[in-house]
Amino acid sequence: MGVGPTGLVGREGELAELAAFLDMAGMEGAVLLLTGDPGVGKTALLDATAEQAVANGMRVVRGSGDEYETDISFAVLHQLVGSLPDELGRLPRSAREALEVALGLGAGAAPSRIAVLNAALSLFDEAARERPLLLVIDDLHAVDQASRAAVGFVARRLRGRRIGLLGAGRTEADEPFRSTGLPELEIAPLDDADALRLLSRRFVHLPRRVLSTVAHEAQGNPLALLEFAGASGGRHGQGAGWASGQGRDVRALYGARVGRLPHRTREVLLLAALEGSGDIVVLEAAGGPGSLEELAPAERDHLVMVAENGRVVRFRHPLVRSAVIDGSTGEQRRGAHRRLADALGDQPERRGDHLARATTAPDEAVAAAVESAARSSMRRGDADGAIARLRRAAELSPDRTVRRRRLSRAAYVAAWVAGHLEVSHEIMREVEGDPAARSLLAAATAGFLVLVTEGDADTAHALLMEAIEHAPMSPGPPSAELETALFTLTLACQYSGRPEHWQPLSEVLAQLPAASPAAAASLGRVHHDLGSVTDGMLRRLDEEIARLRDQSDADVVVRTALTASYLDRLPGCREAVSRVIRDGGAVGSSMPALMFVALDDLYSGRWQPSADAADELIALSEETGYHLFAQVGHYIAAMAAAQRGDLDACRRHCEAVWEWSGPRGLRRLENCAHQAAARAALGAADFETAFRHATAICDPGVLPPFNPEAVWSAPDLVEAAVRTGRHAEARRHADALRDAGVGRLSSRLALSSATVTAMTSAAEDMVRCFEEALALPGVEQWPFEVAHARLAYGEALRRQGLNRDARVQLAAARDRFEGLGSRSWEARAAAELRATGMTRTGRGKAGEALTPQELEVARLAATGLSNPQIASHLFLSPRTVSSHLYHVFPKLGITSRAELRDALEALPPEPPAARL
Hints:
Elements: H1 12-28, E1 30-36, H2 42-55, E2 59-64, H3 75-82, H4 85-90, H5 93-102, H6 113-127, E3 133-138, H7 145-155, E4 163-170, H8 175-178, E5 184-186, H9 192-202, H10 208-218, H11 222-232, H12 250-259, H13 263-275, H14 280-287, H15 296-300, E6 304-306, E7 313-315, H16 318-326, H17 330-343, H18 348-358, H19 364-379, H20 383-395, H21 400-418, H22 421-432, H23 440-454, H24 457-469, H25 480-496, H26 499-509, H27 520-528, H28 535-547, H29 554-566, H30 574-583, H31 587-603, H32 607-624, H33 627-644, H34 647-661, H35 667-683, H36 687-697, H37 708-712, H38 714-723, H39 727-739, H40 747-759, H41 763-774, H42 783-799, H43 803-820, H44 823-835, H45 852-862, H46 867-874, H47 878-892, H48 900-905
Parallel strand pairs: 1-4, 1-5, 2-3, 3-4
Antiparallel strand pairs: 6-7
C-alpha cells in the first residue's frame, strides 16, 4: 500500500470507502461510524473526509465528545446547533424554542425529548437545504447520553436526506452505538511496511535502524509512530533507551508540547478544554480581553485550530485536551471553572456545573445554585441531569438536614421518573447511613422503593405515616416534600386497599384544602369515594388535561393521567402519556404511562393494542425490577382477554396477579383480577362463577370506600345476580350504584348506572329504562359497554316473549361484539338470537329436525354445563331443559351427554341466517 490522495499513508482502502460514503450522503443520506483503538488514525480520517466533503461542495459541522462533560445533557448537540445559528433562526417557532430550551439557550416550557430530537433533525434539514451537510462527531464514547440519543435518532432517519453522519469512537468503549446496528468501519493498525513509509516521510533525518525500532515498538499505531519518533529528536543513537512501545503514554508527549507553551496560552487552553464546546464568545468572556490572541502559539504548534466560521476553537486531537487538563493543577482547574461560571450567568445549568467543579468545601450558595440547575433540568425533561446535579448539590451542602433532603430528592427522581432503581438504592444507602432522623423525602423514597420492588405496602405505609405524623401540617397547601410523601402514601393505600391503611390516610386528607387534580390530596379523595368528586374538581381536571399538550414534566403528566383514569378522561391524556413513553428519558414514568395507554385502548375496545401495551408493561417492569407495575400489566391483559373471549389467557394473567399479590395483602390488585375473571365468566355465560368473582370484590348492595373496582364491576355483579336468580341482591346493588351518584362523572359510568337500573326494573319499565340508557349522550365512545347493554336489553325482551324486538337488540349486540373481536360475547349474543327462533334448525342423523331451542340446549350441554346452568342461561326451568335433552338424544341417535359434542359436529352446516 502507498500514500493516499490526502497524504495519509496506508489508508487507501479506508479513504475509498469514505469517498463512497460521501457520494451516498450527498445524494440520499448515509451514516458511518469509525471504530478502533486510541491513536489508530480515526481523527485523521475524519479530518481527511471533512476536507474532501468541503471540496465536494458539502457543508461540514463538527462536534466532539468530552470525558469531562458526559454528565452534561446535550453537550455535543449544543456544539452542533451552535454552529448553525442562522438556520436555527429560520426554524418554526415551536422547533426553535424546543432546541433553545433543551440546550439552555432560552427559557420556556420544557419540551419533550421527542420534540427536541425532531427539532434537531429539522435544523439539519434546514442546513442541508442548499447543499449537502456532513455532521462529523469525534470521540463518540465520550458523548453525553442525551446527545447520544439525538445522534442515534438522526442517524436512523437520514435516508432520503442529503445529510451524512460520520462518527468515530474507541472500540472498547463504544458499546451503546454498536447496539443500534449503525454501519461501522473498523480502523486497523498500519502494517510494518506502511508504518516505515509513514516514518520515512515525516522523519527523513532519522536512520532506518531507528525507524524500524520505532515501527516495531509502536505496533502500527500512527499516533504513537509520529509522537515517539518526534520525541526522539536527535537521540537516534540511543535506540531502546527512548522507545518503550505502544504502551508509552502518547498523552505525555502531548503534555510535553503543551508544557512548552507560554503560561498565558496554557491558561486559555485550559478554559477551552473545560468549557467543552469551544465557543469563542464564552472563552473570551472567561479569559478576558485579548485572551484569544494568546492561542496563537498553540495554533502554530498544531495543537488547536479555529473552525471555518470563526466561532469555535477545536483541539487537533482529543488527547490534546486530555493533556491540557492533566498538566494543570487542581487550583488552576478550579479557577478556570470559576471564570467559566461567571461567563455563563445566563445558562443556569452550565453555570451550576462549573460552580460545582470550582468548589471543594461545602458551600450553601453554590449548592443552592446547583440545586436550581437540577430543577431546570427537570423542567426540560432531563431526569438524569437532575439526579447528577442533586447529588452534587448534596455533597456541597453544609447542613446535614438539607443534604439529606437533596439526596432523597435525587433518589426519588431516580426511582419514580428515571427508572434507575440501582441508583436510587445506592443513594438511599448513603441517606440511611446518616444517623440523623429520617426526612419526609427519605421516607417517601424508601417507601416507594419497597412498594414497587417488593409489593410491601405494610412497610411503605409504616414508614410514610411515621414521617407524616412528625411533619408540621400548615393550614395551606402541603410543602413539596410533604406532597411527595402524601402521593407515595396514597399509592401504597391504593394498591393495598385495606382499611387499616386507608383510614389513617383519610384522616390526613381531611386536614388538607382542595388541591389541583395532580395533587396527592385529589388522587386520595377520588380513590376514596368517586361519588364525592365535585363538579368544580371535574372542571379543574379538564382544564389541567387541556394543558398537558405543553407539559413535559413526566411527573405532572403521570399524576394528572392517574386521576383522569378514575374519571374516564384518559383520551385527553393520550398524547401526553405517549410522549413520556416515546421519549425514553424517563423509564420510571414510562411504566405508569404504559398503563394509561393500555387502559385507554381497553376502554375504547381496542383489545390487541391494549394487550400489546400490557405485555410491554409487564416485560419492562420485570426487566427493571418494578414488579408491582407488572401486576397492573397482568390485570389489563386479563381484562383484554376477558372481553376478547380468550378464557385461557385471562385465567393465566389472573392467576399471576393472585399468586403475587395475595401473600402480600394487596387487596386492590386481587380485586382487579376478580373483576377480569367475572367479566370472562359472563362472556362464557357462566353466571354462577361470575357472581362468585364479583362478590369477592364487594358484597351486593355495598360500594366500599377505596374500592373503585366495586364501581367498575357493578354491572357484572348485577347481571350475574339476575341470571342466577338473586334478584334482591341485584336490586340492592343497582340501587347502591345509582345512589353513589357516579353517573354524572362520565358517560361510561352514566351508562353503567342506567343499565343496572334497567336490568332490575319492573317489567313495565324495562323498555323505557333501557332506551334511556342507550340514548345517553357520549356513550358511543364506550363500544363494549354499549354492546353489553344491548345484549342485556335483548335478553330481557326475550324473557318477556318479545322476540321480534329482542332480535333487533341482540343482532346489534352480536354485530358490535363481532366488530370488536369479542368472540365469546359474540357467541353469547348469537345463541340468544337462535333462541328467539331466528336461526334455521339443525337435523339429526335420521333427518329429524331439532327445534331452535333444542339445538341451543344441546350446544350448551355439550360444553359441560349442568341443567340448572343451562336453565339460567336460557331463562328456562331445569325441568324444561331436561325435557329438551330427552327429545334431543333420539333425534341425534345418541344415548348420553358424552356423545353430544361429536354428534353436533357431525351436523351439516347451517345455511346462513338473515341478519337484521
